[in-house]
């Protein structure tokens, strides 16, 4: 069945100039990942090209006992004891990332025009630990012990809601759920809000904590997770012949997106421009991608058209690259059809960071911006034998300097959700 395009971005001729009046400025980045509790540490660690998966106490005794956890982050120190206790882990991460992004953009939240500021965050499933704890109490016929905070602590919209409360955002505030494409989808919607004139500034990204025992058990039962024996740091191996599934992770990333005129008026440096985006549906299967990557290909082509770019304009691809057999194959086939037999250099950050589910697209969007800014492509970890059928130009071993003006980042999710973002240098 053919893929169905669901992009809200208007198409333009592939031969149009890469500059377009729909571009929005990225003026701030906030990140918390297994590679670091801030943007600079994350970026520096990505350059080492080593997987960060390790055995984790919360997953002990489960079919898969390892994952990638954010370290160096104390939610009590960041938010205070009372607020940290009231919120779930994914919201802790969202709040911290948003605060870092606003600080990076040198924004004064007391002075900004609050109704003209929005918050759009992607959350795939949120943390299931809180749900399980309260369901257990209810199952023990002890409803009086169920916390009155159980529901507001856990519902996915609380990531965006708490950021809006924390930073006095009076404009649109909502959560996007498109599985593992959620964070990237949120960034695309944010671009539309800015270019439509609804907002001057949007805080956009994603947050997720996928390290709950129930989450790990469910994915393990689906045979989606790597069970590679030995050193867990080698388990996530996108595009490798021996890949056998993804590695669970957590994290958050928020980008500050502004209309370029607004950024210029306040003298804000621009890290990159978000030139265009597109989303498509595979219309194929509830968890498996279209086997030949038709939906992914449609998303890449539509994003390029929306941004006014041609395939030859793209100097780098940040791959979704989950390390699953079907997912990597579908993505590679799609990219080879779009970019031909000599595609631009590719990196797969999940080889280092694991798969942060709904946050992954936002984290990788931030990394794509940093790649353009530094003109340096982080290496893919654990690629010891590239699948000969997936003949992509993958950067391995060490970071690769590369002159580039534009790059794409892919994010695909269960249900056939595909989102592609196109960034360029300012």
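Q: What amino acid sequence fits the structure above?
A:
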């Amino acid at each position: 069945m053919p893929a169905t395009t669901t992009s809200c971005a208007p198409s333009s001729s592939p031969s149009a100039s890469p500059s377009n009046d729909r571009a929005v400025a990225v003026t701030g980045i906030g990140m918390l990942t297994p590679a670091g509790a801030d943007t600079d540490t994350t970026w520096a660690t990505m350059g080492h090209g080593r997987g960060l998966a390790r055995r984790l106490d919360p997953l002990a005794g489960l079919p898969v006992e390892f994952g990638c956890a954010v370290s160096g982050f104390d939610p009590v120190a960041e938010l205070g004891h009372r607020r940290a206790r009231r919120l779930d882990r994914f919201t802790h991460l969202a709040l911290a990332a948003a605060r870092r992004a606003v600080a990076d953009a040198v924004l004064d939240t007391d002075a900004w025009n609050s109704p003209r500021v929005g918050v759009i965050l992607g959350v795939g499933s949120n943390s299931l630990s809180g749900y399980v704890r309260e369901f257990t109490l209810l199952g023990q016929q002890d409803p009086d012990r169920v916390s009155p905070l159980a529901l507001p602590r856990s519902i996915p919209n609380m990531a965006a809601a708490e950021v809006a409360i924390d930073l006095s955002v009076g404009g649109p505030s909502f959560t996007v759920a498109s599985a593992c494409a959620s964070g990237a989808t949120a960034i695309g919607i944010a671009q539309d809000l800015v270019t439509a004139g609804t907002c001057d500034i949007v805080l956009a990204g994603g947050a997720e904590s996928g390290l709950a025992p129930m989450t790990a058990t469910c994915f393990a039962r689906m045979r989606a997770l790597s069970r590679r024996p030995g050193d867990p740091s080698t388990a996530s191996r996108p595009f490798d012949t021996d890949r056998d599934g993804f590695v669970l992770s957590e994290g958050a990333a928020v980008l500050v997106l502004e209309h370029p005129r607004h950024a210029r008026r306040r003298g804000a440096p621009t890290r990159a421009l978000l030139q265009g985006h597109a989303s498509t549906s595979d219309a194929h299967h509830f968890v498996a991608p279209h086997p030949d990557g038709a939906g992914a290909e449609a998303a890449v082509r539509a994003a390029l058209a929306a941004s006014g770019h041609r395939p030859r304009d793209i100097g780098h691809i940040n791959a979704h690259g989950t390390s699953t057999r079907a997912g990597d194959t579908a993505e590679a086939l799609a990219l080879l059809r779009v970019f031909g037999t000599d595609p631009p250099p590719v990196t797969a950050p999940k080889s280092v960071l694991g798969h942060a589910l709904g946050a992954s697209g936002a984290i990788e969007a931030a990394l794509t911006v940093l790649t353009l800014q530094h003109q340096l492509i982080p290496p893919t970890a654990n690629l010891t034998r590239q699948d000969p059928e997936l003949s992509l130009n993958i950067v391995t071993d060490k970071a690769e300097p590369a002159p580039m003006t534009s790059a794409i980042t892919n994010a695909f999710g269960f249900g056939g959700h595909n989102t592609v973002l196109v960034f360029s240098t300012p």
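Q: And what stands out in the fold?
A: Residues 124 and 315 are 29 Å apart (CA to CA).
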